[in-house]
């Protein structure tokens, strides 16, 4: 659970940095998108070590495996928790937890739903609300985030994402043995908040800039 969670956090940080290329130019964002998929003249990532266009599929399969392992771990831990803390009025105990900790399972479901929609929207291009499926990547982003309710929905979803990450980041390093003292606990908690806030700002600044006309 901890290792797959941290791998997903690393992916989000990379994804965020790619989104921010929109602030350089639409051409820079398009180049980045085509480079990931191996569609440019350069052959894409790791070309010619691997055939052109293979990296994105290897990466997608790897991320799918990480997500499935993360879900499997969550279900396994949930079952163990139910056995250890049954719902009978005699044995039921409530531990002191943050709101993020109490909503981790529901937050995970919300995250998964949002990921599926996000993939259908920008990867499969099956749920576009503005523009056409053959538009350039930067044109598609500009079209979708020029819709106010899309940005609002994205902002709400990112709140769920970052709440999940705030607790998950701290919990992962605790599981891996880094939470060894009160000082270490404070450091881990501070790092968790920094990562969560950084991701929220990093993912939301571009949609807000599109909606307000800063990016056009």
CATH architecture: Up-down Bundle
Number of helices: 8
User: What is the name of the CATH topology?
Assistant: 3 helical TM bundles of succinate and fumarate reductases
Series of H and E elements: HHHHHHHH
Q: What class, by secondary structure content?
A: mainly alpha
The description of the largest β-sheet is: none
Report low-confidence residues grouped into runs of 5 or more: none
Query: Terminal Cα separation, in Å?
Result: 40 Å
- Tell how many strands the DSSP assignment holds: 0
The overall pLDDT, averaged over residues, is 88
Describe this structure in words.
This protein is mainly α. The protein has one domain: 3 helical TM bundles of succinate and fumarate reductases (Up-down Bundle). Helix content is 69%, strand content 0%. It is globular and about 55 Å long. It starts with a helix and ends in a 5-residue tail after the last helix.
What key attributes describe this structure?
216 residues, mainly alpha, 69% helix
List strands and helices in order, with pairings.
Blueprint: H1 2-19, H2 26-37, H3 54-84, H4 99-102, H5 104-122, H6 137-144, H7 148-175, H8 182-211
Concise synopsis of the structure shown:
The chain is mainly α and 216 residues long. The protein has helices at residues 2-19, 26-37, 54-84, 99-102, 104-122, 137-144, 148-175, 182-211. Helix 1 crosses helix 3 (54-84), helix 1 packs parallel to helix 8 (182-211) and helix 5 (104-122) crosses helix 7.
């Amino acid at each position: 659970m901890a290792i797959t969670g941290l791998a997903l956090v690393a992916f989000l940080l990379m994804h965020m940095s790619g989104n921010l290329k929109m602030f350089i130019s639409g051409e820079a964002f398009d180049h980045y998108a085509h480079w990931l998929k191996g569609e440019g003249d350069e052959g894409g990532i790791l070309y010619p070590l691997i055939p052109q266009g293979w990296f994105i599929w290897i990466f997608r399969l790897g991320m799918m495996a990480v997500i499935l392992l993360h879900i499997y771990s969550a279900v396994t831990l949930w079952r163990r928790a139910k056995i250890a803390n049954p719902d009978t009025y005699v044995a039921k105990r409530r531990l002191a937890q943050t709101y993020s900790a109490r909503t981790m399972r529901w937050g995970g479901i919300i995250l998964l739903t949002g990921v599926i929609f996000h993939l259908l929207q920008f990867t499969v291009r099956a749920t576009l609300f503005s523009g056409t499926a053959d538009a350039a990547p930067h044109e598609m982003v500009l079209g979708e985030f020029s819709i106010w309710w899309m940005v609002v929905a994205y902002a709400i979803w990112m709140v769920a994402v970052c709440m999940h990450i705030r607790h998950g980041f701290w919990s992962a390093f605790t599981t891996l043995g880094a939470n060894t003292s009160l000082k270490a606990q404070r450091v881990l908690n501070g790092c968790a908040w920094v990562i969560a806030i950084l991701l929220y700002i990093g993912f939301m600044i571009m949609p807000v800039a599109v909606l307000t006309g800063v990016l056009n």
